[in-house]
Amino acid sequence: MGPPNTLPFPSAPTEIADLYPESDGKPMAETERHFRELLKNFNRLENHFAHIPDVYVLGDMMMYYEEGNPRKSISPDIFVAFGIGKKERRIYKIWEEGKPPDFVLEFSSKGTYRNDLTGKVRLYAEIGIPEYFLYDVDRRYLPTPLMGFRLIGDEYVEIPALATGGIPAATLGLEFHLLDDSFDIYDPEAQEWVNTAAEDAGERAEDAEERANQEATARHKAEAEVARLQEELERLKARR
Hints:
Elements (H helix, E strand, L loop, with lengths): L31 H17 L6 E4 L4 E2 L8 E2 L3 E5 L9 E2 H4 L5 E6 L4 H5 L1 H9 L3 E6 L9 E7 L2 E4 L8 E3 L4 E5 L4 E5 L4 E2 L3 H43 L1
């Protein structure tokens, strides 16, 4: 008599795990202040390019720059890439996108500034990222709190500040300006500061309130003038 019928033994999954992890396990920012500055300026750049369909703005995403070697990776704080579309991505593989980002912004800290000024300068130049900017949130570690580099040939050259004090990012068509306790982004073509969507909404609300106040003031003046004219008319009638 043959063996009893049994259910087949469950086989191990044959799918091979993705070689390219979505996270390096490191925190997004070293301190709360770093996180807030990173998030605010990411939102500003995202809002600025929101109407252009082929501009991708993101940060803290794993970027792989050598196919088949998952150890060849970096996770920029903020990057901007033109010509690749806004589709949702989980990681950035340079060989699949067909190009590296056009711009990278790193927020330097006590734990990162040395690598930001040495290893990342060499790596981003090797990858071919046209512009690389650094901001020292604590203003204690970089030679100057705000620095920009442009790729000339295969090496980065520091970008000199404008007469206004801003450092121009030619790839973005924007200027980065150091302020008292932060930095702002300026659009020289529109001649206005780059805002987050929330900041834009706040300004629109303030403008609407100001217009409403102006209209109310004009209406009160018109009503007062009508009342004055009516009083004058009544006086003229009384003299007859």
